[in-house]
Amino acid sequence: MTLWLVIGSFSLAFLFALGLNWLALIPWRRSVGKHWTERARLLYPAIVSARLNNWLIPANLSILSSILCPDISFLFAVIPSFVAVLLAGYFFSREVVPEVSFKSWLHLVAAYLFLFFIWWAVLMFAIFNMPENFGFWTWLVAGAVLLLMLAFNFGLGIKLLRWFGLVQPASELLKALVAEVSEQMGVPVRATWILSTHVSNALAFPLTRQLLFTDKLLSTSTDGEIKAVCAHELGHLNEPRKVVFTRVLVSMAFYPTIFARPMSSLGDLGTRAYFILIIGSLILWLVGIRVGRKMESRADKIAAESQVDAVVYARALERLYETNCMPAVMPKRSTKIHPDLYDRMTTAGVTPDYPKPKPAKGSSWTSRLMFCLTIILAILTCLG
Question: How far is Cα 21 from Cα 206, in angstroms, rounded to an integer?
Answer without folding.
Answer: 35
